[in-house]
Amino acid sequence: MKPWQLILVGVLGGLLSTALILLISAPPRSETIILRTQTPSPWVIHLSGAVTRPGVYEVPPKSRLMDAINIAGGLLPQADTDAINLAAPLKDGIKIRIPFLGEETSSSSADITSSVEIYDEASGTESDRLDINQASVEQLETLPGIGKTRAEAIIEYRQKHGKFDTIEQIQNVPGIGPGIFEQIREFITVTP
């Protein structure tokens, strides 16, 4: 072989080697994209009175009273179903007492819809929401994802920095980030 042919073969071999190395070390052309959907946290409610198994239960968001009663094993035969609204929508953190037949009930406990603050996304108003500038620790704990520690942190932040101007400012509280904010945004408000 002539010297110029040897050089040409060497250059072509080098180019092929470089192409092979680049092909092997190149990242994959399509990367898998993982989409995460946020599943809403279950609501926690307390059922007492004329149910088979009184206690604290988790129910899916937007459940009705009848759903919670079914989870608790159903009504006792002595339950006064005329005193309650079985179709009433529930709210996270509520306690419901199912009265027994002949039991005196106050007007507020006879109709669950009048004794429970209910938030309905379609017709919700600011008055249905919890004012984070006024709420106590116990009231804040009824919000999804807010336990005693976070509720106390909200109160402490409020004492140090004053009232919240917008609901988004609650994300400045340690322990409350965008995830928690998305869970509670529809349930909170601020008043000046």
TrEMBL record:
PANTHER family: ENDONUCLEASE/EXONUCLEASE/PHOSPHATASE FAMILY DOMAIN-CONTAINING PROTEIN 1 (PTHR21180), ENDONUCLEASE_EXONUCLEASE_PHOSPHATASE FAMILY DOMAIN-CONTAINING PROTEIN 1 (PTHR21180:SF32). Residues 138-157, 168-187 form the Helix-hairpin-helix DNA-binding motif class domain. This is ComEA family DNA-binding protein. SMART domains: HhH1. Keywords: DNA-binding. The keyword Magnesium does not apply. InterPro entries: Competence_ComEA_HhH, Endo/Exo/Phosphatase_dom_1, Hlx-hairpin-Hlx_DNA-bd_motif, RuvA_2-like, Soluble_ligand-bd. The keyword DNA-binding applies. It comes from the Bacteria. One of its GO terms (molecular function) is DNA binding. Gene3D superfamilies: 3.10.20.600, Photosystem II 12 kDa extrinsic protein.
